[in-house]
Amino acid sequence: MRPTSIGRVSTSRSPLAFRAVRILGSGSNSCERRCWLFNAAKTTTVESIVVGGGPGGLAAVGNLLDSLPGKLPQLWVDPHFAAGRVGAKYREVPSNTKVALFLQFADAVAPFRQILEKTPAPNAATVLQKLAQDKGCELGHAADLCLMLTEGIREHYPSQVEQHRGEVEKAVLDEQTNTWTVSLDDGRVFTTDRLVLCTGSSPITSPLPILKQLSDSTPSTALTPLHLDTALKPSLLSQTIDPSSPATVGVVGASHSAILVLMNLYKMAHSGSHPNLRVKWFTRHNSLRYAEQKDGWILYDNTGLKGDAAQWARDSLEQEVFEKSPVSRVVTRFLTGGENGAEESIYKAELPGCTHVVQAIGYKRNTLPRLMVKEKSEFTPRHLTIEHDALTGRFRQIDHSGEKGKVHVPNLFGAGIAFPEMVTDPAGNVESAVGFWKFMRFLKRVVPEWVSKP
Question: Could you give all domains of the chain from N- to C-terminal order, each with its CATH number?
Answer without folding.
Answer: 8-200+366-452 (3.50.50.60), 203-363 (no CATH)
